[in-house]
Write a structure and sequence with these properties.
The structure is a homodimer of 309-residue chains. Chain A is an alpha/beta fold. Chain A folds into two domains: 110 residues, Rossmann fold (3-Layer(aba) Sandwich); 178 residues, Rossmann fold. Helices cover 29% and strands 16% of the residues of chain A. Chain A has ten helices and twelve strands. In chain A, the strands form two sheets. In chain A, strands 8-7-6-9-10-11-12 form a seven-stranded parallel β-sheet. Chain A is elongated. At the A-B interface, α4, α5, α6 and β12 of A face α4, α5, α6 and β12 of B.
Chain lengths: 309, 309
């Protein structure tokens, strides 16, 4: 069985895959293209080669192992039509993203940029406008692995952590869970909204003009999942009007975020370049998942993190 | 009984004190001085008026209620000699300071300044050097209320939180506690040191050349208690040599930190102007403590937060 890796996990790790009985070939995502060496692969271990690589020319392809949690980059029709199996790196980045959420809340409440600016200018000037998280209501859109790891980290902060999922079922680490139908009722009552939902067409611009308008003027919004969940144009209009204590965005409607976007320029917008998932443990955790599934695949056992398309 | 307040908590709160039977007078700390109206007070509710106010000229003074947690600003000899009672605001600022500790760890591990600089320049460039807290060893010097609130907040981060106190007695929220004698043995083994000890002469420059030298090259140091616990000259030498992943200092040997201090200029030093205790809840919590002790004092009951001098 031939497996193409678009990322080089190093000799030792790839040899461990070979020891499972696979023929392993590494072709970097930035240069991969169709051709005889690539097109006969049965397995593709990748993030997003689909703009350079046409999988309709890969008749043997039966399994795509994504190194990402999201799977919106897939050529969906082709994958569905041919029943190609897809697994993702579910949970593999959730811990650092959970940390990122806690950090972003704290940075907005503590006005970190103020202090960095003053340090640059060597100005000692106390900031009496900083807030604490105690007693605040934080609403997570989604109660999946990212939201759960964030909620777990927020446990000790004496805030109320609310999770929204389809039916409002209780989940560990959330003080309360609400259903999708109750969302708009809660949006106006909470101090912070954290977007941690997977993206699909029905969820496009879930956080729209109406949603943003319903939020408190002093509210915080954090998005660590997918940019298209937020209507950025509407968000910019509200920011122009002076709304929101702070906004932390790690993801955007278009990535890289175009230079023309007004989002770059707001002092109370905290931007990062889709970076929240990164940590020194990323390859270790990613590879654990890949290895486990290739072991299972070679034994014809049930795969983990199978994506329902 | 006459009580002088050097901060104006507002009519409603001061009337509540008057209802306890006190004569209340407000004189701001920035302008207070000795004189007939001040010198006959029995109680002084203040932070640090002692550079302007000579309490040896206040013969009726029996109780000083400090709005700070630290009490190193007191004219110690006079207070001890006359057995003046002193209470502090123990625990009153510990929650926001606990948040500050968690935030500082995260900002250093996630290299926040990098992202703020890139945002200023509208540059989208991923940073693969960011770390996570999972599995890291964090040593708190002190297991008092500040350290405890910080440790409580760090519970969900899957780090190992170690507390140092005099005898190594176990304390809630710490995964392990060690004694003062074991400190140097642990300093070289941990990824982060958080200084949360009260200051006194024996503790001067506890974190000295030898302590800093023993720390890991990639270690983090956070100080949220008193600046004089750290030998800043030695710290600057190590920073010049490239040591440390990051340093977060909210307190300094001299405050305001002089413009000449090299500490301002290091990118991996995160400075704040003794600001970590601030939150929108500060007056509420401070006043609760003051009210409780004035109630107890008028009933000749035992005071809370009595400082042992």
């Amino acid at each position: 069985m031939k497996a193409i890796f678009t990322y080089d996990y190093g000799q030792a790790k790839l040899d461990a895959i070979r020891a499972l009985g696979y023929e392993v070939m590494v072709v970097k995502e930035s240069i991969i293209e169709n051709g005889p060496e690539v097109d006969d692969a049965e397995i593709l271990v990748c993030y997003n080669p689909f703009e350079r690589l046409d999988i309709s020319k890969m008749p043997a392809l039966k399994l795509i192992i994504l190194s990402s949690m999201g799977f919106d980059q897939l050529p969906l029709e082709e994958v569905k039509h041919r029943n190609i199996l897809v697994t993702n790196n579910k949970g593999g980045y959730s811990k650092p993203i959970g940390e990122w959420v806690a950090m972003s809340l704290l940075n907005i409440y503590k006005d970190t940029k103020y202090f960095y600016r003053r340090q640059d200018d060597k100005i000692w000037h106390i900031n009496t406008g900083v807030w604490e998280l105690v007693g605040k209501n934080i609403l997570f859109l989604g109660t999946g692995s990212v939201a759960t790891e964030a909620a777990k980290r927020l446990q000790g902060f004496e805030a109320k952590v609310i999770g929204m999922n389809t039916d409002g079922r209780a989940m560990p680490y959330f003080d309360e869970c609400i259903s999708f139908d109750q969302m708009m009722h809660y949006v106006s009552k909470v101090e912070a909204v954290v977007c941690a939902l997977p993206y699909n067409d029905q969820m496009h611009h879930l956080i729209d003009e109406r949603f943003l308008g319903a939020m408190k003027d002093c509210a915080v919004l954090i998005n660590v999942s997918r940019g298209k969940l937020v209507d950025e144009e509407a968000l910019v209009r509200y920011l122009d009007d002076g709304k929101f204590m702070g906004i932390a965005l790690d993801v955007f409607e278009r990535e890289p975020l175009p230079k023309e976007s007004p989002l770059w320029e707001f002092e109370r917008v905290y931007l990062s370049p889709h970076n929240s998932w990164i940590s020194e443990m990323r390859n270790e955790r990613r590879f654990e998942n890949i290895f486990e599934n290739l072991k299972r695949y070679s034994n014809q056992a049930a795969l983990i993190n199978l994506v329902k398309l």
